[in-house]
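Posting for a labmate who doesn't have an account.
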Amino acid sequence: MKINVADDVRSRIEARAAENGFDSVEAYVEALVVADAAGPALDDAEIQSLLRGRMAGPFVDMDEADFRQMRQKLKARLDRGNGEKGGP
C-alpha cells in the first residue's frame, strides 16, 4: 500500500516513529492501523471502572520466574510491534 503525504507531515511521522522506537515509518504506521483495527480504546472512566473491578481480586501468587516470563513476553510483543522479529 502506498500513502502520499506532504513533506512536513512525513517529517513529523518519521520523528514520531523514531521517538516510539520503530525502525521504519512503515512499521509505525502498520502498528497504528493494527491498534485501530483492534477496537476502540477505553476512555479514562472505563479504565478506572475496570481497575476498580480488579482491585478485589482474584489474586495469583507469583515469583521472580513468573515476572521474568511476563517481561519476556511483553518484550517479544513490543519487538513485533516495532517491526522487529521477535517471538515468545
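Reply:
Got it, the C-alpha cells are right above this. The mean pLDDT is 84.
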